[in-house]
Amino acid sequence: MIPAAPTGEQHTIQAAGFTAVVTEVGAGLRALAHQGRPLVLDYPADRAPVGSAGLPLLPWPNRIDGGRYAFDGEERQLALTEPKYGNAAHGFTRTLPWRLESRDGGSVRLALRLFPQPGYPHVLDLSAGYRLAEDGLTVEISAVNAGATAAPYGFGAHPYLTLGEPVDGAVLELPAAERLDVDDRKIPVGRRDVTGTPYDFRTARPIGDLALDTAFTGLARDADGRVRVRLTGAGGAPGVELWAGEGVEWLQLFTGDTLAEPYRRAGLAVEPMSCPPDAFRSGEGVIRLEPGARAVHRFGIRPC
Length: 304
Hints:
Helix content: under 10%
CATH class: Mainly Beta
CATH topology: Beta-galactosidase, Chain A, domain 5
């Protein structure tokens, strides 16, 4: 008997010199390469994702303090999926199997009907589409409220960009003017201007030994409305770029200091998010999905 992969069926797509692998479990991006050069931190097919690598985070990203929040006057309690800190983290869909909706040589789309969960009495129809083209990988995540009552919703994703070497020597360009301070349980306690601090990467510079597990906002967008984060090698060596479209107001950056070897600081998680950490409690950036309403978010990865 051939053992089943922990992430289920592996969907490989190829186009324009790019190859990507998308998993059945979690609808995650397990691998992405251009002309054989890895652009994201991948992991073997016979193990689970490392540090939530490549996974959509739905129906909320990041953490909810104590898993408790209120919506439309109802107090709710989510399962505490980050027991170390006593938080609910990264939604429900990372470990669920998604069904194949469509596929051709260069694209694949997976779908999931998320039924009510403890603390989240809603039904969502979720879709994760991955498309390769000359301009790289485009990811489209959508959610439709298939239930009878309004639902809170937030989008997030967890790709790790990589240069194939430790991030210490990588040069980061991040057009973000503010960051969040957090407490020892990673719950926000306030915003800070990045000007004059080690967290200001609006002018590209090396990451060095800085440890990041930090949410950034105040994002500057290019003329096409996209925000772009670039990771390049010292001396202008080839790099990788993540762009995010409309509705992405936050980026969580994580240097992977808590990951086990050989993944520790081997890549930089650049996590597009529609809302900040603890949003279900604060209400900031939370999308109110009325019955039948749809929310769509897009991001992409390409060499630079």
